[in-house]
């Protein structure tokens, strides 16, 4: 998909081949993807309700709604079929919004440039809880539903852990002396993998949030985006423009999935609802799509037994 302006974020519909893109102009565009049949992608709708750049997008669990967040501090809900505005919070945060994460059919999390995180009840159409534990921008969020736990990275170098039912944080990590830019939960909820400005993957053990328990250097530039492929494999998007497939514990670079051209930093990576391909956006105003199902399966199954043994040894060390 090619656009006339810089793409800040993308989101996939949970059950259909539909993708939404948020632009620096504040516009939101939604497309029906015609994958593999040679036909052109179909433009479903566009929205221009945001006055400044649209930085974050997320579909609802059932796909009926599209949530969007902007530098203009507003949060809005669109009908994902028509693009009609269903709800708008003009001053949802005191600072420009930077992150959105759909937690379940009723709850939405948002993070801003000032370090604030809020949970919104979409039935009541209001904020139900908020935290301000970080001192710099919220860069990414990951949620573990059965633990009711939100894991948040920030530019201030601290990882924050929140129970969405409680007003006080579960934990805030020691400062890692580096900007934390992206996060994914892997190893059956035992590990949190965090991408940093210096190009190191920091690995935290669940429940031991004070400091990372493992580090995997090797990226030459910042790791701005992470998407989980399976429990042992992630894809990383780096500011050097490359999308890498990376194995976790044992830590290894599996290969290069693709790129957006030299000097084109990867802004976001998102996994499709079918888990078979990912979308990426960069500074080239293009959204690209990559097949990950076959390559990830081939690599991880060959090493499954060794990885399980490694993980068990790691758990014994923690005990």
What would you note in describing this structure?
It is a single chain. This protein is mainly beta and 319 residues long. It contains two helices and 27 strands. Strand 9 (97-102) and strand 10 (107-112) form a beta hairpin. It starts with 6 loop residues before the first strand and ends with a helix.
Strand count, sense and closure of the main sheet? 4 strands, antiparallel
> In terms of quaternary structure, what is this?
single chain
* pLDDT averaged over residues: 92
What is the share of helical residues? under 10%
> From the helix content, strand content and strand pairing, which structural class follows?
mainly beta
The low-pLDDT segments are: 315-319
Task: Summarize this structure as a short list of keywords or feature phrases.
mainly beta, disordered C terminus, globular, four-stranded antiparallel β-sheet, 48% strand, 8% helix, 2 helices, 319 residues
Structure, briefly:
With 319 residues, the chain is mostly beta strands. It contains two helices and 27 strands.
Itemize the secondary structure elements and their pairings:
Blueprint: E1 7-12, E2 18-23, E3 28-32, E4 42-47, E5 54-59, E6 65-70, E7 75-79, E8 85-89, E9 97-102, E10 107-112, E11 117-121, E12 126-131, E13 138-144, E14 149-154, E15 160-163, E16 171-172, E17 180-186, E18 191-196, E19 201-205, E20 214-216, E21 223-230, E22 233-238, E23 242-247, E24 252-259, E25 266-271, E26 277-282, E27 287-291, H1 293-302, H2 304-318
Antiparallel strand pairs: 1-2, 2-3, 3-4, 5-6, 6-7, 7-8, 9-10, 10-11, 11-12, 13-14, 14-15, 15-16, 17-18, 18-19, 19-20, 21-22, 22-23, 23-24, 25-26, 26-27
């Amino acid at each position: 998909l090619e656009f006339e302006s810089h793409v800040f974020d993308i989101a996939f519909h949970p059950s259909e081949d539909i993708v939404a893109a948020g632009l620096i102009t504040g516009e939101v565009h939604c497309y029906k993807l015609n994958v593999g049949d040679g036909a052109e992608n179909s433009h479903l709708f566009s929205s221009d309700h945001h006055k400044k750049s649209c930085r974050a997008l997320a579909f609802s669990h059932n796909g009926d709604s599209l949530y969007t967040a902007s530098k203009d501090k507003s949060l809005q809900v669109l009908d994902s079929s028509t693009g009609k505005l269903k709800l708008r919070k003009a001053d949802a945060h005191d600072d420009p919004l930077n992150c959105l994460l759909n937690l379940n059919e009723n709850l939405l999390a948002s993070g801003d440039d000032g370090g604030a995180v809020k949970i919104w009840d979409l039935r009541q159409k209001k904020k139900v809880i908020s935290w301000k534990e970080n001192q710099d921008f919220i860069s990414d969020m990951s949620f573990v539903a059965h633990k009711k736990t939100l894991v948040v990275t920030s530019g201030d170098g601290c990882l924050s852990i929140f129970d969405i039912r409680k007003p006080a944080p579960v934990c805030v990590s020691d400062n890692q002396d580096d900007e934390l830019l992206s996060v994914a939960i892997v190893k059956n909820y035992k590990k949190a993998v965090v991408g940093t400005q210096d190009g190191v993957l920091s690995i935290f053990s669940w429940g031991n949030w004070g400091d990372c328990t493992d580090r995997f250097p090797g990226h030459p530039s910042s790791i701005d985006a992470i998407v989980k492929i399976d429990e042992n494999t992630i894809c990383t998007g780096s500011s050097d423009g490359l999308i890498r497939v990376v194995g976790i514990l044992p830590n290894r670079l599996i290969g290069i999935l693709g790129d957006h051209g030299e000097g084109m930093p990867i802004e976001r990576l998102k996994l499709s609802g079918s888990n078979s391909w990912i979308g990426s956006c960069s500074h080239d105003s293009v959204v690209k799509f990559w097949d990950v199902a076959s390559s990830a399966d081939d690599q991880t199954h060959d090493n499954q037994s060794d990885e399980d043994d490694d993980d068990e040894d790691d758990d014994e060390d923690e005990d």
